[in-house]
Structure formats: structure tokens, C-alpha cells
């Protein structure tokens, strides 16, 4: 590439960022272009503003962000009982498949009470819902991912319809928090 072309490219790139600012708009960022919007039917029920909104959740680490979402209160209780709040909040670039309260309600009460009382079993189940990488919607189409529990889970689907392990539907996916991507699911996953 000639020096003239390099200078011309630099001027064009600078103009792309300067022009919107001059016009009173935000300059484009490459991160915004790469990130997809959250998807799924349950995204409509996320509060429009405040700490539990999509914008509010983006400011907090994942366990804190989840605690601000009323649909995830059972998960938050389980994370606290397992002692995983700091672990999740301090992790970087993870993906959490977060079961809703309704997902936990599918488990018989006696069984759920037993699981919540057994810290080792609870930790195993919860860490099975966490993948140690940022999983994108494109990867959800057909993926196998190693979980923090040590096992693996699979994802499949297309458009805005994705399933985890063939049974848990992602009802609101690709939610960004300060340190994680969250996919809210309608069933609790169990490790093998």
C-alpha cells in the first residue's frame, strides 16, 4: 500500500469518528458493531430502566446483575448458598446459562430443598451452567462447550430459537454484563 493510500485511509477513518461528533451524535465504535442485541421472548419483560434493565445489567458483574433481575431470584439465592458470588463476579469473559425462577419451580420442592442444602451438589449444578468463554449467538447454532464443573454442554438452533442440551430453551439471550454474557434459560441443567 502506498504512503498516499495509507494517509487517505487514516483521514477517512478519522472522518468516520469526527463527523458524528460534530453533528452532535455519538461516534461509532467497533465494539458496538460487533455486539448483537439481546434476543428472545422473555427480553420484553426485562425492566426498561434501572439496575435490572439491560443497560443497568451491563454496568455490573454477572452475580450482581442477576440479583437486580426479579426473574432470577432463585438462582441468586442458590449462588449465595454455594458461595459463588465472588467467583462469578471476578471471572472474566464467561457465559452463564441462567435458569429463571420458573425453571427452578419445575424441580419438586423436596428435591430442590435437598439440593439447596447440599453445598457440594449445588456448586456442581451451578458451575455446570457456566462456560469459561464468551459464547456468541453464532456459536450457539451448533456448539459444544466445556463448563466450569468439568463437563460439557451443547447448544443448537437458529435465528432467535436456541436450546441447551436439547431441552432448555434460551428465553432471553446475549445479555451483556460487565464481565459475562448471560443466556436466560427455562430449565435447570443437570451435569452427567
Describe this structure in words.
With 192 residues, the protein is of the alpha+beta class. It has two domains: 1-34; 36-185, FAS1 domain, CATH 2.30.180.10. The chain contains ten helices and seven strands. Strands 2-1-7-6-5-4-3 form a seven-stranded mixed beta sheet. The longest helix is centred in the N-terminal third of the chain and has 20 residues, at 3-22. The model is unreliable at 1-35 (pLDDT under 50).
* Rg estimate, integer Å: 20 Å
What is the total number of structural domains?
2
Number of β-strand runs: 7
CATH class of the largest domain: Mainly Beta
Looking across the biggest beta sheet, what order are the strands in?
2-1-7-6-5-4-3
Helix segment tally: 10
Main beta-sheet strand count, sense and barrel state: 7 strands, mixed
What percent of residues are in strands? 15-25%
Low-confidence stretches: 1-35
Proportion in helices: 40-55%
Q: Overall pLDDT, averaged?
A: 85
Helix-strand category: alpha+beta
Form type: globular
CATH fold group of the largest domain: FAS1 domain
Q: Architecture of the largest domain, CATH level 2?
A: Roll
Query: What is the CA-CA span between the terminal residues?
Result: 55 Å
For CATH, the homologous superfamily of the largest domain is named as FAS1 domain
> What is the H/E string?
HHHHHHEHHHEHEEEEE
List keywords for this structure.
single chain; 192 residues; alpha+beta; FAS1 domain; 2 domains; seven-stranded mixed β-sheet; 10 helices; globular
Concise account of the structure shown:
This protein is α+β, with helices and mostly antiparallel strands and 192 residues long. It has helices spanning 3-22, 30-34, 54-59, 62-67, 73-82, 85-90, 101-105, 109-117, 119-128, 137-140; strands spanning 94-99, 130-131, 142-146, 152-158, 161-164, 168-176, 180-185.
Amino acid at each position: 500500500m502506498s504512503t498516499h493510500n495509507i494517509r487517505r485511509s487514516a483521514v477517512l477513518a478519522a472522518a468516520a469518528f469526527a463527523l458524528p461528533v460534530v453533528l452532535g451524535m455519538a461516534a461509532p465504535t467497533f465494539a458496538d458493531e460487533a455486539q448483537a442485541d439481546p434476543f428472545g421472548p422473555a427480553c420484553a419483560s426485562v425492566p426498561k430502566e434501572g439496575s435490572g434493565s439491560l443497560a443497568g445489567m451491563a454496568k455490573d458483574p454477572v452475580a450482581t446483575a442477576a440479583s437486580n433481575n426479579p426473574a432470577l431470584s432463585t438462582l441468586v439465592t442458590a449462588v449465595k448458598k454455594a458461595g459463588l458470588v465472588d467467583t462469578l463476579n471476578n471471572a472474566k469473559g464467561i457465559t452463564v446459562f441462567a435458569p429463571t425462577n420458573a425453571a427452578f419451580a419445575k424441580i419438586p420442592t423436596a428435591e430442590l430443598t435437598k439440593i439447596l442444602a447440599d453445598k457440594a451438589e449445588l456448586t456442581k449444578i451451578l458451575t455446570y451452567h457456566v462456560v469459561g468463554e464468551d459464547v456468541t449467538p453464532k456459536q450457539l447454532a451448533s456448539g459444544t462447550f466445556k463448563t466450569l464443573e468439568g463437563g460439557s454442554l451443547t447448544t443448537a438452533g437458529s435465528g432467535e430459537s436456541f436450546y441447551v442440551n436439547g431441552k432448555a430453551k434460551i428465553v432471553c439471550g446475549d445479555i451483556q454484563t460487565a464481565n459475562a454474557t448471560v443466556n436466560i434459560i427455562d430449565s435447570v441443567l443437570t451435569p452427567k
